Amino acid sequence: xxxSKTLTAFAVLIxxxxxxxxxxxxxxFDFDESLYRRVAxxxxxxxxxWHPVWDEKPLHHKPPIFYWMIIFFSHLFDGAENxxxxxxxxxxxxxxxxxxxxxxxxxxxxxxSSVKNSFLLWGCALFPxxxxxxxxxxxxxxxxxxxxxxxxxxxxxxxxxxxxxxHFLLALSMFAATAIKGLTGLILPILAIGTHLLIxxxxxxxxxxxxxxxxxxxxxxxxxxxxxxxxxxxxxxxxMGRAFTQEFFLIHHLGRGTQAMEAHHGPFYYxxxxxxxxxxxxxPLLAFQSIRTRFDFRRxxxxxxxxxxTLIFFSASATKLPHYTWPIWPAxxxxxxxxxxxxxxxRAHPTPTLWKIFLIPILMMGIALFWLAMxxxxxxxxxxxxxxxxxxxxxATLCLVIALFFKKFMKQLEFITVFMALITFFMAIPxxxxxERILVTPFFEVARALKNVNPSVKDCIRDSGxxxxxxxxxxxxxxxxxxxxxxxxPEVMKYLIAPTHKKAECTERKMSVILEGKTLTxxxxx
Length: 526
Description:
Layout: H1 2-25, H2 32-46, E1 53-54, E2 57-58, H3 65-78, H4 86-109, H5 112-124, H6 126-130, H7 138-157, H8 164-180, H9 184-200, H10 207-240, H11 242-258, H12 270-278, H13 282-293, H14 297-300, H15 302-316, H16 328-340, H17 352-358, H18 360-374, H19 386-409, H20 413-439, H21 441-452, E3 460-463, H22 469-479, E4 493-499, H23 504-508, E5 512-516, E6 520-524
Parallel strand pairs: 3-4
Antiparallel strand pairs: 1-2, 4-6, 5-6
Helix pairs in contact: 1-4, 1-5, 1-20, 2-3, 2-22, 3-4, 4-5, 4-7, 4-16, 5-16, 5-20, 7-8, 8-9, 8-10, 9-10, 9-15, 10-11, 13-16, 15-16, 18-19, 19-20, 21-22
């Protein structure tokens, strides 16, 4: 018991150390993270909370609620005059993550033990652990969707119909998730509940029960949620303008579903790969629990129905992004928590071949990290430091050890979480530092160089590459409000930011080189 408590405390310490490091030290990266942070920053500065803009141009990607959360924490931590810090941008997602973990554990039996197991299982899953502080809408939408996962699971597990108050809570949950990010807040619960009713009531004698329950849900849950959402988006249409409504629904819903946006595409099995490779040690644990119990799917399998229907829905969409998998992870963790309480089936004996299949991602990750540590020269944009090589080697070693000895440790959740948390910690620190030097630091160096030549807000600054919100943040931090890029015509350009391998463009435009870095060159008409 003492050993278990020590391991749990160690696991919690490592996970929170990773999150704290991310809150204070990991910059926001293009595209989504820096973009949402910059939009919140401009919203804070201009005081217009209904019209999101990026470099003073309207941006109608999402409803404004998440931006408001970032602004609230920015006022709390940064003051009224400063821009949005990394901490203010990242902490809303961390709070949403903690809400998800607590809700999953508290749902079981309202004990600290269940919350602890929920936390430990979250620590076993690589992708959600890494993105718990990501500046994206998905953690908060997933938190809003949790009643649509927990309430049906309780109703199905108790073999009963939904209660009146549960219909009300489900409708509110769907509406809240829709208000935060969009129509997936309505679609995912409808698909999940419909899928489970269909799969678990295939026998002819159960058809009437399924149809009756589906009708009740349609009238008392789905319809109220849809009506509330219509009223909400009608209000947004009045406050934000018809341009928001058209772009948000026609482009960022219908458009994303039918064609890949901004080159975010992939095969139908894209998300299956994300779950398989990003599941860390959660997927082998879930496979073990499923085989160990041989559970009654109709009674206990709703989390799997939720995960499966969400996976299929996003797989059918043309636009694919890894963070769309966020609603799937709590479902998988809830399934694992549920099966932990079930008695062992005498017929259930996992085969060695099965374990090899589910541990392939960890083995592959270990090999890849070793290869990177042994061949740091492959990253040409920056030098990998000796400390970073050591940490990558440690992460790789732990990956190989847990892959080889997983079967010995799989019954001790605390031990597995310690391994996964250490792997993630040792991997995240060097990789985030390398990414910062390549993707973020050059833009801040350019902004500081610009500051030294005292540009005017009216000066035309252009980046010969694609628009980047990281450059917008750098300009805002180093030069202050009002400085934008690529919001002017090339003919009146005074400063040019170009990739160093295209610095000849400075000569062509008869500009003097102000700064020549490893990846970016700044030149201007001085």
